[in-house]
Design brief:
120 residues, two-stranded antiparallel ribbon, 1 helix, Znf_LSD1, Zinc finger LSD1-type domain-containing protein
Length: 120
């Protein structure tokens, strides 16, 4: 019996694990939180309203009240409607504004009489 065993060297495969390279940690840990829309509370009916960032006014979907967006505040601000005496356009302004410029004809109206109310 001839010994043909010429395999004096067993091939040894070194599987080098590339341990140093981080390749696939795209896991659930790296999910960024969804961009939260700003929200505020309707000053009239206390409903929480979500609105798009950058909006100045948010209309409550429940009571239709317009809420003024105040940066840093979660409570909707009161608004008032100024009816332009020149062109009749109704202009929305945050409550407390003394002078409102008409968006249509640029007339500036003094609206302080709104705050004093009917009783002088
Ligand atoms: Zn409301
Ligand atoms: Zn006007």
């Amino acid at each position: 019996m001839g010994t043909n065993g010429t395999e004096d060297k067993l091939p040894i495969f070194f599987v080098e694990n590339p341990d140093g390279t981080i390749d696939g940690v795209a896991g659930s840990d790296s999910i960024a939180p969804p961009p939260a829309n700003p929200r505020l509370w309707c000053h009239h009916c206390n409903t929480q309203l979500e609105f798009a960032a950058g909006a100045s006014y948010v209309q409550c979907y429940l009571c239709r009240t317009m809420n003024a967006v105040h940066t840093g505040s979660q409570l909707g601000g009161r608004t008032m409607n100024m009816l332009c005496t020149v062109c009749g356009t109704s202009n929305l302004a945050p409550w407390g504004t003394a002078y409102v410029r008409c968006g249509q004809c640029n007339t500036v109206s003094d609206v302080t009489h709104i705050y004093t109310g009917p009783n002088r």
